[in-house]
Amino acid sequence: MRTRKAVCPVVVTSAVLLCSMAGQAVAGPGDTFSNTQKIGKVSPTSIYLKTGEIDASVPRGGLETLAGQAGRFVIQLDGPMTPARRTALEGAGVVLGDYLPINSFVATFAHADADAVAQLGFVRWHTPFADSWKIAPDLGQRELVTNDRLLLQGLGMSALMVDLFIDADVQATIDSILMMSDKTEVVSITSIGDQPLLHVLAPSALAGQLAAVEGVQFIDDFPELSKRNSTTAWIIQSNSSGQTPLWDHGLRGEGQILGHIDGRININHCSFVDPEGDPPGPDHRKIVAYNAPMGSDFHGTHTAGTAAGDAGVSNDTRGMAYLAKIAFDTIPAFSETAFYNMLAQHEGQGARVHTNSWGNDGTTNYDGMSRAIDRFIYDYEDNVVAFAVTNGSFLKNPENAKNVLAVGASRDTPNQNQHCTGGRGPTSDGRRKPEIYAPGCSTRSSYNATSCGTTTATGTSMASPAISGVGLLVRQYFTEGYYPSGAANGPDAFVPSGALIKGALINGAVDMTGVSGYPSTREGWGRLVADEALFFAGDTRTLWTMDVRNASGMDTAETVEFPIEVIGAGEQFRVTMTFTDPAGAANTNFAPVNDLDLEVVAPDGTVYKGNVFSGGESTTGGSKDDRNNLEQVHVSNPALGEWTVRINAAAVNVGTQGYALVVTGEVAEPAGCYADFNDDGSVNTLDVTAFLNAWIAGDSSADANGDGSVNTQDVIVFLNLWNAGC
Fold it and tell me: Mind listing the domains of the chain with CATH numbers?
C-alpha cells in the first residue's frame, strides 16, 4: 500500500542567500559555453542546460577510453534514441540517466566494456559532467520577501534545493554534505518520480563545495514559501489574478458534501472545528460523518482543507468549496469490496464528489481497486471519483480506472502552465490518463499540528482535492438551476450525473503550454479553468448540455444527433462527451466494455471524429476512438451556422449506455427548437402531448434522432431535449 504523501511535507522556515559561485558560468573541459535565456531554433549539436548552451559541434572520438572510469559523463547521439541504440548501449554496459536536450544523456561507464563501447558509432560527442553545470545561474539572486529569509541572509545561510542523480547513493551524498560544516543541515529527503531531492540549509559560501559532491546533480534556491491555496482558487476558477467568478456568482459549496478518504482530519483545526462543540454528524458545521476513530494526520488535514476547509476568512484556511461539508474515512484495505463499500457509505451520507490522494504503485494492471471505482460509478451514476495520479514517473493504480477522474499537478503562478508532478500515461490498455491538472506545487493549506496554522506541501495529493472542490461547485451550478440562464433559478434545477460533472470539468481544461503536445499522455486535457466551462449571465461564451442516464441510454448501432447553432466565431467551439462504462472483467487486459463515439459535423458537412487532434485542434480524417470513454472535439474560429453533434453506439455489450454532452462556445439552440414541438414559443407539457401523438401516428416529424425511423429511441431523445428546454 502507498499513501501519496506530499513531495515536500516538511514544515520549514528558510532563506535563500547569495552564493560565492552564483551567476558564474564555468565551461567544462574543452567546451564552449554561452549563457542564453531564450532558445529559438535548436541545434542538434548543442546541449541546452539551465546554466547555458553547450557547443558540441566538434565531434569527439575515443568513447572507449571512458570504459571503467568512475563518475558521470554526458554523451550526445547523432540523432534520436531508438530501441536498437538503447539495446546497444545497455549491451555495452553503459548506464543511462537523465535525458538532456538535444539527443543527449547523462551516462556512467564504470562497468562498460571497452570493445563494445568502441562499436557505438552513433555516439558523436562526450564530456565529463562538469561541476559548474550543477549550480543555478541565478542562485541567491532572487528578491527576498519574508522576514525569515532576510534574517537567514544576515546569518550567512542559504536554503537550497539539491537534486541528486537518479542513481545516486542518497545516504553517502548526505554524509558528504553534512561533513562540510557543523552548520549544514539536511531538512528533508523527498523525491519526484525517481529523482531524489534534498532540502539543505548551509552556509552560503559552500555552494561550490556542494557541487563537487558526486551524487549532486543540481543546486537551486529552495522556494520562498507564500500563500498557495489563495492562488489555487483563482488559477483554477479563472486564471486571472484574484478573480474568482464561481465564488462571485454564489457557488461556494452550499448544500454539497465531499467524500474524503485519507489520513485522519484534525477536527479541532479552525478549518473544520464546530464553534458549538457539536460532534461530527448532521449538525456539525463541517464534518457530517467521521467513519473512523478520531485522530490527526498531516496529509488528511491538508487535503481536506484544500477541498472544503473554511475558518471564516479568505486565506489559506479556505478550500475550493469552502461552504461544503465532508464525509470522511481512512484509507481502506486494498480490496475491491472494502473500497467499493467505503465509497457507497459516503454516498449514503450525501457525498457525490470524492477525492483520493493515495493508491498502489505496485502495478499498472487493471486490478480490483480500478474495478471498484468503475463498478461504484456505474452503480451510482450521480458520483464523481477523483484520484491523484502517482508522483512516480509512470501511471499506476487505481487512477487507470475508466470512470475515475485522474488528476496531475501543475505548478503555481506564474508557472501554472508547467508540469509539476504526476505519472505519465497511457494506461496498460492504451487509454489517455491522466485527464486533468490543477496546481499542486507548494500548495498551502491546513496544518494538523496547529489550531489554525497552514503549511505547504507538493504533490498530486494537493491537486486532487482542488479539482474535487471545484467539482462540488460544478454540481451546485446544476442543482441550484444556474443552467441554462446563467443565474440561480429553482425551476431549472436538476441533479447532474457524475459523467456530466466530469465532462464539464474537462471541457474547462486548457492546454498547459509548458508541456509539449496537446492533448497528451503527460497533461491529458490540460489544466482546469472552470469559468471556461460554466455560463453566467452576461458571458459571451455559452453552454449547452445533455445528460442521459444509463437506463435511458443507447444500444449497439443506435445513433443520436443534436443540432447546435454557432452564432459567433470569437470563442472556441468545444464538444465533450463522457460516459460511465461498466467495470471490466477481473482478468481482462483490455478494460473497455461499451463503446460510444463522438462525431461533430460542420455546416459544410466536414466531419470531426472525437479525439482526432493535430496541433492542439481537431482535424478531419483519422480513426474513431475505440477505448476512451471521454472524447472531445475542439474547433477554433468555427463556421457560423448549424452544426450537428452525433453519438454513435459502436458497441454496447452490457446494459444500455447513457452519456453526457457539454458544448461550449458562442452557441445556441437552433431557431425553432425541436423541444417546442407545437411551435408556440415555449417548452411545456403541451409539447409532450403533441410529440407523442405524432409518434403514435408514425409521423416523420417524430423522428427525433434523425435516423430515418420512428421508434422508442426518439421518445428518449425528445424527452431529453424537452428537459433541457430551448
Answer: 32-133 (no CATH), 135-221 (3.30.70), 253-343+355-469+498-509 (3.40.50.200), 540-671 (2.60.120.380), 674-726 (1.10.1330)
